[in-house]
Structure to design on (321 residues):
C-alpha cells in the first residue's frame, strides 16, 4: 500500500469510528481483522475507480481503439473517441466493455474480436451496427461457431460470466446488442437519450442516473450489475452528468451480502440486532447513503468494496477481472 493509500486508510478508519458513535454500530467490523480488511477494500475501490479519471488526462495510443491490435482496450478507445467528439462511439464501446467484460486470462479478446467484425473496413462501429443489425446477428452466429475450435481464449468477464454469445436466443449477445441499439435510437442517439432523461427528471445527476437505470431494463440480459456498471462508467468518463445516489442493493448478490455482514455480522441476516428489526434492502440503502456521506466515499466505491469484502472478510484479497 502506497503512503497515500495508507493515509487514506487511516482517515477511513477514523471516520468509521465517527459513524459508529453517531449513527449506528457496525458489528461486521467489530473484529480487528475484519475492520482492517474492510478498510483496505474501500481504499482499493477508491483507487480503482479513480483510474478512469487518471487515464483520461494521459496520452492514449490510437492502437487502443484498433481491434486488430493486441493493445485494444474498449475503455481507452471510448476516451479517445470522446476526445474527438465521437460521442455515440464512446458510449457504444462502454456498452461493449460491460457486456463482454475483461477476462482474467483472455483480457479484452472477446470484445475485441466481436468489435473487429469481418475485416478492417467492416468493424462493428456504432454507425455500422445501427444500419445492419440483422447482418451483425448473422455474422455473429457464424463466427461464434468458428471461434469454438480455433484455440484462442475468448471469455466473458467475471460480472457477465454466464452471458451467452448466441446470436439468436432472447438473452444472448445478439439480443443484447439489438435491444441496446433500439433503446438508444428511440431518442435518435446517445446525446438525445441523456437529453430526454433530463427533460423527464431534471438535471440532478443522481435523478438522471435513476431514470436511466430503470429505463435500461429494455436491454436484454442487462441485469442489476450490468446496468450499474455501464451507467457508472458513463458518469466516470464524463460522457453524461450522472452518478448513482445509492448502491442499488435490490437484485444484488455480493453487495447485498456485504451490507448484511456489515450491519448485522451475518451475510444471510434478515433482521438486525439488538431490536431484531427487519433488515430490508431499502433500510440498508439509507444507512449506506449516510455512511458514504460521512466517509466522503461515492456509492460506486462503497458498492464495489462491500462486494469484494464479503468474499474474504477476514483477509484482504484483490479481486479483479
Amino acid at each position: 500500500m502506497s503512503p497515500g493509500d495508507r493515509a487514506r486508510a487511516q482517515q477511513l478508519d477514523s471516520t468509521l469510528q465517527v459513524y459508529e458513535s453517531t449513527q449506528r454500530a457496525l458489528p461486521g467490523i467489530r473484529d480487528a481483522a475484519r475492520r482492517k480488511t474492510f478498510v483496505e477494500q474501500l481504499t482499493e475501490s477508491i483507487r480503482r475507480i479513480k483510474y478512469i479519471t487518471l487515464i483520461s488526462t494521459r496520452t492514449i495510443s490510437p492502437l487502443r481503439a484498433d481491434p486488430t491490435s493486441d493493445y485494444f482496450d474498449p475503455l481507452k478507445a471510448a476516451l479517445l473517441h470522446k476526445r474527438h467528439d465521437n460521442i455515440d462511439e464512446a458510449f457504444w464501446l462502454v456498452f461493449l466493455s460491460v457486456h463482454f467484460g475483461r477476462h482474467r486470462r483472455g483480457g479484452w479478446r472477446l470484445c475485441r474480436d466481436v468489435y473487429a467484425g469481418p475485416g478492417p473496413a467492416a468493424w462493428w462501429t456504432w454507425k455500422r451496427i445501427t444500419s445492419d443489425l440483422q447482418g451483425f446477428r448473422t455474422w455473429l452466429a457464424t463466427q461464434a461457431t468458428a471461434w469454438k475450435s480455433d484455440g484462442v481464449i475468448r471469455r466473458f468477464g467475471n460480472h457477465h460470466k454466464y452471458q451467452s454469445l448466441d446470436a439468436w436466443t432472447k438473452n444472448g449477445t445478439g439480443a443484447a446488442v439489438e435491444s441496446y441499439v433500439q433503446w438508444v435510437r428511440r431518442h435518435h442517439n446517445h446525446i438525445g437519450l441523456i437529453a430526454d432523461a433530463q427533460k423527464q427528471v431534471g438535471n440532478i445527476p443522481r435523478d438522471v442516473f435513476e431514470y436511466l437505470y430503470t429505463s435500461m431494463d429494455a436491454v436484454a440480459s442487462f441485469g442489476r450489475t450490468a446496468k450499474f456498471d455501464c451507467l457508472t462508467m458513463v458518469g466516470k468518463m464524463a460522457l453524461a452528468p450522472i452518478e448513482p445516489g445509492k448502491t442499488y442493493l435490490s437484485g444484488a448478490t455480493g453487495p447485498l451480502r456485504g451490507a448484511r455482514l456489515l450491519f448485522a455480522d451475518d451475510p444471510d441476516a434478515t433482521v438486525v440486532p439488538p431490536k431484531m428489526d427487519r433488515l430490508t434492502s431499502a433500510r440498508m440503502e439509507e444507512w449506506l447513503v449516510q455512511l458514504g456521506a460521512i466517509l466522503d466515499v461515492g456509492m460506486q466505491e462503497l458498492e464495489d468494496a462491500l462486494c469484494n469484502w464479503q468474499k474474504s472478510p477476514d483477509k484482504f484479497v484483490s479481486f479483479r477481472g
About this structure: The CA atoms of residues 86 and 290 lie 38 Å apart. The chain has a mean pLDDT of 95.
